[in-house]
Amino acid sequence: MNKPSRSLCLIKPDGVRRGLSGEIIRRIETSGLRIAALKLVQPDQALAQRHYRYDDIAVRHGEGVWQALTAFLASGAVIALVVEGVSAVENMRRLCGATEPSKSPPGTIRGDFCHHDFAWAKTTGKAIRNVLHASSSDEEAAKEIPVWFEPVEIIDYRRSDAAEHLLDQ
Length: 169
Description:
Layout: E1 5-11, H1 13-17, H2 21-30, E2 34-41, H3 45-51, H4 54-61, H5 63-73, E3 78-85, H6 88-96, H7 109-113, H8 118-124, E4 132-134, H9 138-148, H10 164-167
Antiparallel strand pairs: 1-3, 1-4, 2-3
Helix pairs in contact: 3-5, 4-5
């Protein structure tokens, strides 16, 4: 049996504080994706910095953006999930909507629950409030998942609604 692809999903402090975790998890599960790992974490600055790697963020977007992102991620409780399924990364990104919430259509998580834009973030010097993170590529997921989970924390099980013929391909 082929292994399904994986994506990391983080319900960020704004999503947890607003009580959106259950709705976000419901949307992930009803889309057919499988949650393989889940935990509530209070990230410290070091964990936030391992997640938002300096070379990936600061080089592209500037040191200020990296500092704002890491400070925000460490500002409160985060729910970390490993999500599995066919094209998990692409499907999670579709569910999330655009990174900039104001550009996310209704029906996406960010389109339904967020409204900030990059101009607001730049003006305030704060990280964008977009309630969740999802890996942007399979390569990124492979780097991010071990930051948050040990291999033994990722559970393999079969959803009862999974079609047998799809699992064995």
